[in-house]
Amino acid sequence: MRGSGLRRLREDLGAELIRDITLVCLAVGVVGVSYGAITTSEGLPVWTPTYLSIVVLAGASQFLFTALVAAGGSPFAAVLAGLLVNARHLPFGFALADTVKDHRWIGSYLMIDECVAFALAQRDPVRRRLVFFTCGASLVVCWNVGALVGALAGTAIEDTDAFGLDAALPAVLLALVLPALRDRGIRRPALLGAAIALVVTPFVPAGLAVLCSLGGLVLARPGHKEPDRPEPGRPEPDRPEPDA
Amino acid sequence: MIGTTEILVAGAVLGAGTYAYRVAGPLLHTWFTPSLRVQALMTIAATVLLFALGVTSALMDGTHLADAARPAGVAVGAVLAWRRAPFVVVVVAAAGTAAGLRLLGL
């Protein structure tokens, strides 16, 4: 029963996509290890990484929480900073509302950046749903296992930069989003938005710069040219995701 | 240093707030279905945010510029992705470039 279910999933997703998701899960897992290690080496209790990973499940805000609290900041400030960083999940929820509509409580919990990017790269709604839930569930497991291992191992693996993981995760997002950017109606707001975000990053609190990228949406007024082909992730048939 | 209760409460508040962001869209969706145009706009908004997140985390480390290795690695990955290289190649090349440059002491 279970075996056939897994085999079915494998057939539905395709070997290529499963490999891609596995790779991202591994990378996220290793970042989870470093998160756990950094958090406990900063003197926070060993259960903290696991607790935050379960109740928050948003890596960037968890790292920030650790950094602010370890620097002697108040928990109140750490929560506010985290909420600012995570505000981007609000539009994610609207973009994926249809995708999670049958399981919205659990689906909303799974809206992790990489998972959102994987899902939005799929055009077909059924496939998008399958990819979202598969990727989300896998990421939850990897992130939590990583955080726990890191917390227990202490300072064993703290510097994941040596493995280039700090370059791998932005590359994951770009690789998943770039196909949508072949559509001019999306490329213009995205490029404008990224430029705005870069310019304001040095001057605003963490998280706000990324939100400012939505200004690109206002300036570029997308969809005016191609109102009938708005889906990103759509175009090229030989896209990375299913190019097996 | 922060106490146990403070971590528990702060984590719970941050978790609840984050979940509220995520669930707002799906919940609203059950009361009314936004027009296709609005849905498309939301998808573009999410794409713009993810792209900005990728670009800023490639170039910036906090509020200052990242070291050269990270943007170099991401740039290699981005070029490969634009040229439709397989996803695995993109990610491994990005990480490998950054790690290699650091190994060389750059």
UniProtKB/TrEMBL annotation, chain A:
Listed Basic and acidic residues bias regions: 223-244
Region feature (Disordered): 222-244
Keywords for the protein's UniProt record, in alphabetical order: Cell membrane, Membrane, Transmembrane, Transmembrane helix, Transport
GO cellular component labels: plasma membrane
Keyword Transport (UniProt): yes
Membrane topology according to the record: Multi-pass membrane protein
InterPro entries: Brnchd-chn_aa_trnsp_permease
GO biological process, one term: L-valine transmembrane transport
Keyword match Transmembrane: yes
Bilayer-spanning residue ranges: 21-38, 50-83, 130-157, 163-181, 193-220
Subcellular location: Cell membrane
Membership in a protein family: Belongs to the AzlC family.
Protein name: Branched-chain amino acid ABC transporter permease
Automatic annotation (TrEMBL), chain B:
Keyword annotations: Membrane, Transmembrane, Transmembrane helix
Transmembrane helix among keywords: yes
Annotated transmembrane regions: 36-60, 87-105
InterPro entries: Brnchd-chn_aa_trnsp_AzlD
Pfam families given in the database record: AzlD
Protein name: AzlD domain-containing protein
Species annotation: Nocardioides guangzhouensis
